[in-house]
Amino acid sequence: MPFVFVAFFAIAPCTPTLGADLTDISLAARRTRGIPDFVAGALVRVVWAGGPAGVAAGDVIQGVGGDLVQNACDVRLAVAKHGCGDVRLAIRRGRDTIAIDAKLVDAARFRRKKSDDATACQNGDGAACTALAKAHDDDIVLLRQACDLGDGEGCFMLGLKLGNGKEGAAAYEQACDDGNPLACTNLGFIYQSFDVDAARRLYKRACDGSRCSGRNNLGCVNLGRLYRDGIGVKADPERAIGIFREVCDRSPIGTEDAEHIARACSSAGTTWIFTEGIAHDIPRALGLLEKGCAAGDTFGCFNLGVLYEYGTEVPQDKARAAGYYKRACDRGDAEACQRGAALGK
Fold first, then answer.
1. Which residue ranges make up each domain of the chain?
2. What is 100-125 written as a DSSP string?
3. What is the DSSP letter of 209?
4. For residue 163, is it left (φ>0), alpha (ψ between -120 and 50) or beta?
5. How far apart are CA 104 and CA 273, in angstroms?
6. Contact (CB, 8 A) for 148 and 167
7. What is the pLDDT of residues 203-233, one digit of tens each?
8. How far, in Å, are 47, 83, 108, 341 from residue 14 at the CA level?
9. What's the CATH superfamily of 16-109?
10. Mind listing the pLDDT tens digit for each residue in 58-108?
11. DSSP H helices in 117-163
12. In whole angstroms, how large is the CA radius of gyration of the chain?
């Protein structure tokens, strides 16, 4: 029987695209285009030459297939999930909401020349304006331009520049709507002084995170504190412990995030030990405090010192207490330094 050679050719995967540049809906775009506040989605900034017919510049994409979308990132994820081929889009065009059938095509068919950031920013690319701002010491004029063009990162950086005033809050709000969970946390902190319920919603939004940017652990810790202390809500220490413990089990992304996770561990432990009216689980609470202290949280080390100094829920051990106070003192806790010195006398 003759040998028959059969060749198999790998089919290159298709990377679907709508053939358009998308941006989040900025406050400036809402004003100039008359887009109501309740309309969420992604704004079509530019349709690529030779791209698939259907969408037009100025459209707001609100749904891809059966997926409702809140921002440009959501659209990209939904498009990637559907793959190349026909898809039904829900679009707001002018004052009308319409459904169109568009074809998702392979991004490889487009060979688009990348312009420099200055040119791209001038042509309305908010992300390019943000990149340009970074190259010029976070220039505030460029950050304002980036935010007005709908770039969420630019809005967040602008909020950091402007601080906790009205304009900074507006920048954080837009960045939060664009899917930046840290912006939601920062905005929650601003609101907490005069609208705790709004702050709680923002902290929860930050803690839940987004599909693009993940969760913000500081938002979770702040949310847990509200429930622990009954600030603006009915005190619910068990719910607070649940929030803290969930954060404690996460892996940090960077040094600052590690500090928030360590504080969550310590907060879970102290809440479990010191809160009246709930079942105390001393071994597990001590384990959480040890984990927080070991990760560098002075709050955890200090409270372990207090527990062993006074024999609260544990056998009294002043030498061990002095060791914990020293660890907290070495990390800058002045009260721990004073308590440790007093124990040594």
1. 16-109, 116-178
2. EEEEEEEGGG--PPPPPHHHHHHTT-
3. -
4. left
5. 56
6. no
7. 999 999 987 888 999 999 999 999 999 999 9
8. 20, 7, 8, 67
9. PDZ domain (2.30.42.10)
10. 999 999 998 999 999 999 999 998 888 889 999 999 999 999 998 888 888
11. 117-122, 126-135, 140-148, 152-162
12. 26
The model scores a pTM over 0.90:
no
Interior angle at CA 16, CA 71 and CA 89, nearest 5: 50
67 near 41, Cβ under 8 Å?
Answer: no
Instruction: Say which amino acid occupies 5.
Output: F
Task: Please work out, in degrees rounded to the nearest 5, the angle formed at the alpha carbon of residue 76 by the alpha carbons of 71 and 77.
Answer: 100
Distance, in Å, from the CA atom of 67 to the CA atom of 184, rounded to the nearest integer, reads 23
At 336, the amino acid letter reads: A
Amino acid type, 14: C
Total number of residues shown for the chain: 345
| DSSP string for 264-325 | HHHHHHHHHHH-TTS---HHHHHHHHHHHHHTT-HHHHHHHHHHHHHTSSS---HHHHHHHH
Both tokens of 154, joined, read: 């630019």
